[in-house]
Each structure stands twice: as structure tokens, then as C-alpha cells.
Amino acid sequence: MNDQSLLNLFKNWKFLEEAIILNCQQITNAGIASALLERQTLRSLSFTSYFESDNCSKLFALVKHFPSLTVIRMNTCVGGMGENNVENSNSSMNFVVNPQFKSLHLPYNSWLRDESLIKLDTIFPNLQLLDLRDCNKISEKGICQVLRGCSNIRHLNLGRCSRVKLHRSNEL
């Protein structure tokens, strides 16, 4: 699948509410944005093994420009957000609060760090599910920050997060 096929798919499926993009290395950020403009009623968007860089900025841009999204899944996305890019991303994105956004799945993302989690409570005040399985660069500090700000979280998956000490979870 490439950008043009994705665009055609989104144009022709009038009642499309969920899109799952698996291992489509020929789809670019521009292709995804064009397709989403055709189907602004989309509620759920999933990426698996997505390789274009700057994934954290892409995530926040999706939330900003497509407020109908209530679920985003970004599994095993390569590239993304290092500590040096956090400030640039934060200042350039003009974060927008999305109160209807409920579910964020970010498992197996090597790019995800505490610094990337800090804005979640500001952007997703009603977040109910956060999946961070196998995100080995996050720590208790980042998790605590999110849980303080996102008081509606009912499902938190920290499986195999090696830097999060579960024996101290009562401090969360």
C-alpha cells in the first residue's frame, strides 16, 4: 500500500471509523494527513511498524487536527523523539486539548521517553487507557507525572517496562 491507495481507500469508504496500517513502509506522514482530510470522522487510527521519523510530533499533530479521533495505536514505530527534540516539538505543535480522546496505545516504542509523556496530561485530560508495554526508556518519574494529571486512567499497561519498579507502584 502507498499514499495514493490509502487516499483512495479513505475517499471511497464513507462510513470508515477505524483504520489499521500494518507494515506499510511506503506510506508517508503526508499520505496519512491527506487520507485523514478525506475522512475526518475517523475515530480510531492504528500504526504498526511505521518507520517515518518524528513519531511523537506526528501523534500530537493527529490529535490537534483530527478531534474526532478517540483512539490512537502506534505499535513498534521506529524513529521518533529524542530528548533533544522535545522542546522543539513542544513549542512548534501549539498543543490542543482533546477532551474526547480516551485511549492511547504506544507499546514497543523505543523512541518513547519520560520527556515525551509529560504533555499527555495537558493534551488528554480524560485519557482512560494508556498502554506503554515494552517502552524501556520510560521510568517511574514519567508515569507518576501522567497519573497525576490524567486522573481518569483506569487501564495502565506497563508490562516489561524495565525501568519502572512495580514494587514501588503504591507511590504512583
UniProtKB/TrEMBL annotation:
<dbReference type="InterPro" id="IPR050648">
    <property type="entry name" value="F-box_LRR-repeat"/>
</dbReference>
<protein>
    <submittedName>
        <fullName>Putative leucine-rich repeat domain, L domain-containing protein</fullName>
    </submittedName>
</protein>
<dbReference type="InterPro" id="IPR032675">
    <property type="entry name" value="LRR_dom_sf"/>
</dbReference>
